[in-house]
């Protein structure tokens, strides 16, 4: 019997996490995908009151803990701007999960800010500017530890209108395989 899989789809706000999971729906939705933004929208629709992103985040963590306890495969979308999912990757590994990291980066926070602005104009959810500016560098700071904790990794650059481009892969038991040309944020992939 194959082990359950815990996948983390990560990157700063506006990098294209939800776009990637929608684009590769057949791959990512073989198991539950916990998306705090989608959960926040659902919670607000159910209660007709303004709920915080914090409440949606707590619901994601409770759901993730239940999946881990039941040894069920699942994925979670995160900015990776805090240590919560680093600890969860470690715990999943200890529970015998195969852990995967899909990280999407961009060359500058300005790219992400503009994408979020356009998303809001099209009726999508907003992220306060101060949160975007705070989370962007924190996400990259947590990337290397997450890479070390995950069994397998795929790194995408989504800095241009061309879309997600693979810039690195780490397969189980193998060293990092960078794909040139590397964007500045992914230079650590060269080792």
TrEMBL record:
Pfam family, one: Zeta_toxin
Listed InterPro entries: P-loop_NTPase, Zeta_toxin_domain
SUPFAM superfamilies: P-loop containing nucleoside triphosphate hydrolases
Domain of life where this protein originates: Bacteria
Keyword tags: ATP-binding, Nucleotide-binding
Regions crossing the membrane: none
Domain Zeta toxin positions: 4-139
Family matches, as Gene3D superfamilies: P-loop containing nucleotide triphosphate hydrolases
GO MF annotation, one: kinase activity
Protein name: ATPase AAA
